[in-house]
Amino acid sequence: MVASSSAIPAEKDIDLHQLNSGQTSVPPRYVFVGGLHRSGTSLVASLIAAAPGVAAIASAPVPEQEGVYLQGAIPHTARHGIPGSFALDPAQHLTEASACNRHEVAQRIAAEWAPWFVPADAPLRVEKSPVNLLRARLYQQLFPTSLFVFVVRHPLAVARATAKWSVSDEAALLDHWEAAHALLLGDLPFLHNYLVLRYEDLASDSTHEIARLSAFLGVALPAPDAPIANRNRDYAGPPAAAAGPVARRFGYGDDPLALAPPQVAMGAHYFRSALAGMAHRDAAGR
To answer: Which keywords appear in this protein's UniProt record, sorted alphabetically (predicted)?
Structure first.
């Protein structure tokens, strides 16, 4: 089920959209985009939202059109989701064991988000909030057919881009990156459907990465309006601390301009595997 390479091939003759197309009564599926602040989550969410059949939150009176601010079922105060520190708060890592794992929570979130998604009848709904990085296991319980897209970026670039919003020094911000992504690595084996995108790969080979994203979602994403620039050069320079073991598993060293192949599973798609199995069974007449 887990793809160890960076690509998730599309299965022939399988339409992932059939799970909730307009021809059925199945509710829209959520695509949750998560990642630390300044990792490229807004970029990825906009790429997804540009595809036909995808709705996004629009014209909402909240920062960055983030759905986390538009629901009251899961508390999100000024003490939640703080850039450079939220992953250090155990209460913000939400899993199956959360007290929020209740049917009425899912109902309330869906009802409070619904008025903001445009177009309202799209079969997929993309929602981007940085804290989604640590909420995927809970959201999978609340919305079982969800798809998760995680965006990662070199820790030094994230730390230096986030510094203006944080009272923490660079070493502490790098530690926060390690802690957040260690939690993510621990969560991935529990998720049915996820894709990990590196910001740097999007910039260096956007065609390939958008093709991966399209195959994962089962929709045709258009090419971006403009080339995706790698802004990591703006944050180059000797780091306050060496890259940690988690960063190295994602292919990151001390230089934000250098990349190595990731040593983590960059995607899994249980639904695609299940549909492929059924198609094979039907073709065999079994």
So the answer is: Transferase
- In angstroms, the CA 51 to CA 186 distance is 31
Which runs of E-coded beta strand occur in the chain? 2-3, 29-34, 54-57, 117-118, 124-128, 147-152, 193-198, 267-269
pTM: 0.87
Neighbours of 171 (CB within 10 A): 12
Domains assigned to the chain? 2-283 (3.40.50)
Q: For residue range 53-90, what is the model confidence (pLDDT) as tens digits?
A: 999 999 999 888 898 989 989 988 777 778 889 999 99
**Residues 248-276, mean pLDDT to the nearest whole number:** 88
Rounded CA-CA distance 170/163 in Å is 7
Instruction: Provide the 8-state DSSP code for 97.
Output: T
Residue from 90, 107, 88, 109 nearest 98 by CA = 90
- DSSP code of residue 160: H
Q: Which helix (H) or strand (E) holds 152?
A: strand 147-152
* Closest among 100, 97, 96 to 80, alpha carbons compared: 100
- Residue 177 DSSP one-character state: H
As a whole number of angstroms, the distance between CA 250 and CA 6 comes to 11
**241-253 as b/e: b if 16+ CB within 10 A:** bebbebbeebbbb
Please state, for a pLDDT cut of 90, what percent of the chain lies above it: 75
pLDDT at 19 exceeding the cut of 70:
no
d(CA 81, CA 284): 50
End-to-end CA distance of the chain: 22
